[in-house]
Amino acid sequence: MSNSPLVEYVCLSPFCTSPRQSKIDTITIHHMAGNLSVETCGSIFVRPNRNASSNYGIDSEGRVGMYVEEKDCSWCSSNRQNDHRAITIEVANDVCGGEWHVGDVALERLIELCVDICQRNGIERLNFTGDTTGNLTMHKWFSDTTCPGEYLGSKFPYIADEVNKRLGVNS
Ligand SMILES: [Zn+2]
To answer: Which residue ranges in the chain fall short of pLDDT 70?
Structure first.
């Protein structure tokens, strides 16, 4: 199992389960609830007793960080079953509060990362169904959180469409 060639910064978190116990067939997109650089996000995921991580993070400059290798299961979505099958991605907000806006550069890089994840792991298409029957999932479906925030959450159908277009499959 490989990791993304888009990664520019690596800071491996101890808060993961190695190896993951399911084949990768899902992507779960989170927001950071902050405008963190990939370095700052990584520093949080190595703090003692933090007990949280993600596979990847994307900052507002569009840089990609890796915190848990794809072969391992991140502790990200408050749901072990989801996290064993999902690649989890934390995306920075360029505006904090309100609808938790995400900048266009980060959003574009997110789409590129999703395409790469699908291509390397044999995921034929991203299927956003609005619930856990699809393979593009949200944190708030599994626990009492507003993650991925109103703005990013509203972009899930667009993200799936755009990824599928680039994968060469119909939405
Ligand atoms: Zn989340």
So the answer is: 171
